[in-house]
Amino acid sequence: MSTLSKVATWLAFAICSCQAVAVPTTTGDSGYRNDFVDVVISELDPTNLFGVQLRIDYSLDNLELVSTSTGDIGNNFLLATIGDYIDPSDPFGPPVPGSLSASLSIPTVALTAADGGSLFQLTFKITPGAAFGPTDVWFSCDDFGLGRPCLDYDFDPVPATITVLQRATNPMPLPGTLPLLGVGGAALLWARRRKR
User: Fold this and answer.
1) Is residue 118 a contact partner of residue 91, using CB atoms and an 8 Å limit?
2) What is this structure's pTM?
């Protein structure tokens, strides 16, 4: 192996070792139309976590964003932002509907595996016309549109599933229940009078 290829191999390993191994988990929720539901993305081992840049996508037909906040781990970062997602191919264009951009950078403490927890929490309101069943909120790493992979926090897109429940309908009273009660009451009166 030539010296140049040894240096190239070493550089490749050095770059890969700096990349955070990301294994995020998500937690969804369930509720009825007009209910508020929470979605959380967490990282169980933030040891090598120096920055996070996420794109969050959801269905405007089923969900309305109410609030966003940083989670347990997110509170340990100097810079935390959550806002509209702007398409990198049109940086001066309008925000992409149903998409958010969230980032964390510059940890204020050395994070260990024991610091695992939530990165972000989002609260949605289920829309009045939401389709019953599952609807997903997708989390993916975002590379700022620079055409390179997510170097700080790379992972395959993961969903957090919100289940829109359908309320049980009240059972219809059986037709004829009241007439049967009337006939039963009359029979009891007749039996009582006959007994005397």
Assistant:
1) no
2) 0.70
The answer for residues whose C-beta is within 8 angstroms of residue 79's C-beta and 6 or more apart is 103, 104, 105, 106
Determine phi and psi for 123, rounding to 5 degrees. Answer: -110, 130
State which residues form the domain around 94. 23-165
* 178 is a domain residue: no
Phi, psi angle pair for 178, to nearest 5°: -65, -45
Q: Please count the residues of the chain.
A: 196
Instruction: Let me know if residue 149 belongs to a domain.
Output: yes
Indicate the residue type of 174: L
193 vs 186: CA distance, rounded Å: 11
Total domains, the chain: 1
Domain of 55: which CATH number?
2.60.40.680
Is residue 120's pLDDT more than 60?
Answer: yes
CA dist 168 and 166 (Å) reads 6
Asked whether the beta carbons of 77 and 53 are under 8 A apart, the reply is: no
